[in-house]
């Protein structure tokens, strides 16, 4: 089972602003899932983004 992070949690891991994570997801540069207006990102997708 993979871990989900909110956009805020992902931003903390990536050492960037939450708006940057939202933009990356919106522009499909990082895979994310939108639920009730908020972005959620799988841990494995964060790793894939870093490696790319």
Which key features would you list for this structure?
3 helices, alpha+beta, single chain, 3-stranded antiparallel sheet, 52 residues
Q: Can you tell me about this structure?
A:
- Strand 2 and strand 3 form a beta hairpin.
- The protein has 3 helices and 3 strands.
- The chain is 50% helix and 21% strand.
- The protein has a domain at 1-31.
- The longest helix is centred in the middle third of the chain and has 9 residues, at 18-26.
- The chain is globular and about 25 Å long.
- With 52 residues, it is an alpha+beta fold.
- The model has no long low-confidence stretch (mean pLDDT 95).
Summarize the structure.
It contains three helices and three strands.
Summarize the helix and strand pattern as letters: EHHEEH
Query: Mind describing the biggest β-sheet?
Result: 3 strands, antiparallel
Number of helices: 3
- Mean pLDDT score, rounded? 95
Low-confidence stretches: none
């Amino acid at each position: 089972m993979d871990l989900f992070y909110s956009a805020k949690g992902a931003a903390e891991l990536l050492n960037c602003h939450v708006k940057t994570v939202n933009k990356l997801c919106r522009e499909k540069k990082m895979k994310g899932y939108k639920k009730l207006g908020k972005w959620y990102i799988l841990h494995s997708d964060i790793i894939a983004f870093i490696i790319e």
